[in-house]
Amino acid sequence: MSASVGARMNLKLRVWRQSGPDQPGGFMDVDAPDIPEDCSFLEMLDIVNERLVAEDVEPITFAHDCREGICGTCGVMINGRPHGPEAATATCQLHMRKFRDGDKIVIEPFRAASFPVVKDLMVDRRAFDRIIESGGYVSAPTGTAPDANETPIPKDVADFAMDAAACIGCGACVAACPNSAAQLFTAAKLGHLNVLPQGQPERLRRSEAMVETMESYFGSCTNHGECSAACPKEISLDFIAVMNRDYLKAKIKNRRLASQT
Amino acid sequence: MSTAVDSVDSIDSALQGRSILDSKAPPGPLADKWDNHKFSVKLVNPANKRRFKILVVGTGLAGASAAASLAELGYKVEAFTFHDSPRRAHSIAAQGGINAAKNYRNDGDSVWRLFYDTIKGGDYRSREANVYRLAQVSLDIIDQCAAQGVPFAREYGGLLANRSFGGAQVSRTFYARGQTGQQLLLGAYQALAAQIAAGGVTLHNRADVLDIVTKDGEACGIVARDLLTGEVRAHSGHAVVLATGGYGNVYYLSTNAMNCNVTAAWRAHRRGAAFANPCYSQIHPTCIPAGDEFQSKLTLMSESLRNDGRIWVPRSMDETRPAADIDDAGRYYFLEEKYPAFGNLVPRDVASRNAKTVVDQGLGVGPLRNGVYLDFADVIARDGEQVVREKYGNLFDMYERITGEDPYKSPMRIYPAIHYTMGGLWVDYNLMTNVAGLYALGECNFSDHGANRLGASALMQGLADGYFVLPYTIGDYLAPRLGSDPVPTDDPVFVEAVSEAADRTRSWLSVRGTQSVDYYHRELGKLVWEYCGMARSRTGLEKALSEIPALREEFRANVKVLGSADGTNQALEQVNRVDDFMELAELKARDALHREESCGGHFREEHQTPEGEALRDDENFAYVAAWQWQGPQQPQALIKEQLSFDNVELTQRSYK
Question: Which end of chain A, N or C, is surrounded by fewer C-beta atoms within 10 Å?
């Protein structure tokens, strides 16, 4: 392949380095000259890492995988914003043409008590899995299903569920929230399953279990709305309202059931 | 085999008399095989299932669906993923859809037609019995996924929507916007999560499987490295299931995720599992063309785009006008002209090779002249921008983010990229490799797609294997082993394997060479793409076979990995994988060299029709080439599984 056709830029990076979960961390200043503007943010880090290796400096650890914005593995704070300056864009889909020559870029891991730093820019988001395990599913063991067309679902309901189901579980919502709350992540799954006919039998049990698991790991929601603004999939705050409604219903119903026993 | 290379010839003769691989395809009429087989396999009684421990490696569609379904049945399952969460497996990136022979469109689809299309699409290099079963269980998959709450696209009446998809003349593809893989994977992941919560599955995340362990010829466990602590340890079970995906990253640049690798499958191969048809790799026609050296992966855009987009290049090499200003006379709609019946919907390999042909002729577009146009102007004019946005909005947005160009205004640029690998571990009808107790599912095995996979069939196969095949067939192996305990992890076979894997990993730190792991991965990728990519030739493959081992030696002597083995070290994770890709690349080139024909994803320049289409040699090559490890100093031995076609007639594919 020939040389790059696009312009090149010179950047100054401040990158968070931390050798392990229990180690103190700190910023490292790195010059990143001659970066092609057509490369992605993570490819910029690849280039920086190759140069670090050449200088015998251990490369910067950062989580990444699909590099097409769908797996939710990547995600760093770029100048204080999860996934950086572009709306609806995961870190891997952010391209350097969105920056300018001479820019200083501060790169940090997602900051939240429930997302402990693994190393450098990589964090541990297993708390999200705990929320799903507590009820983020429809119990439909393999082999039990009726014909798919026996349960019609109005198109607008299916579309609403799909809007919620688009969540990639990256954790930007938590990182953006001043309280490190996970309402948007949890509400996205509840919004997906709770509106579908298949999700009805477990609706209230699911809502209660997931909300309470969420609260055991994450902070509380005070309606800042930063989560939705940072979300690479633009999950709407409306789903949080749906979740709150279903949680309330679940609590009332459960109290009623409790009083009957 | 008179045309094969000498080394293969000699191995071949050395192996004469050795038993060929037994597909265990059941007898009887095609349509009854699976039902008969389900009845004939041994069962494990429900109360006894908990006495068996099954290790499932990989949590993509095949692995997650298998782990969840086996746990639902009562087996004790341990699942392994190198990701932080099972939900991140690369199945998530599949965009277009999943096939099923539901015939909801009343357009003449049937199990038989899906079977036939898959066999034909695979260029008659797959096993009839497996493919027919795949078509049969496709019906159950859609039901299962809908029951899980997968938000498939719907018509206004609430029933499921379908679309037609690359190469099919019926509309049998189910989809969830452009995120079908994501939604199906989340369905399987959620089923898995339910089983984790219920205690049926123990999940090991950030666990990188480095070896497969066998004792007395049976798989008894694995060796995995904890990617957080660096600890290497053994896990033991009654059976081992590999659902670890394909080997597309041998090309470095592919549409695979960065961490997709062949290590678990390759290590299984080194432990005795035959590796089948490694030369079959699929090129996806609709990817964004490569930019430059910094490029780390290629991004695919769903080929559903070919339903409405028109593919063309300028007729003249000297064309300078912007795309939109070029009149029809100046445009060469090469697929529509050459294939009037199928037009832009010809199968992936045909579309890809034709794109390569026009680019090689100097007609390519874009700054590096390495792409062709995919143009939506006509459909936007016909249906309006809103309709196009509804169907393809997320793909258009993705294109704009990556290239900085607006596809609603100017045509996209596309070029083929490696996308899927049809080859993989050889398995029998039960999905068991030739190592007893070792299974391979999904893209990791070779079984259903022959030499070429149809669009929207990868998701179908992964879920078929995990939800509806393995749960039935694994009992046949386990039932006679009731009462036996798994081999303890302090058994010498485990102790040895653990120390081997730990030493191998640690050894890279002491090489202290001068070039990064990525450097060598890129160099390998260039070789494989150049000589074993879209078109192959004897000269090129022989060159590959001399250059790959040389590169491997240099890599082993000169790679530079910093840091330590006692914690997170991404370069150290990658270096084992690149090492395994180096070995696989060589086998891939040998397989491609020995297969003196063109079929599906394997195109040999020496074997083509006068029109430039793939020319098969059914007389000599209608077999599965399964390669058996012979030790590090010797080339693998070739074992053939002869394919017989009792239900379809072998024809030369024609999409004209």
Answer: C
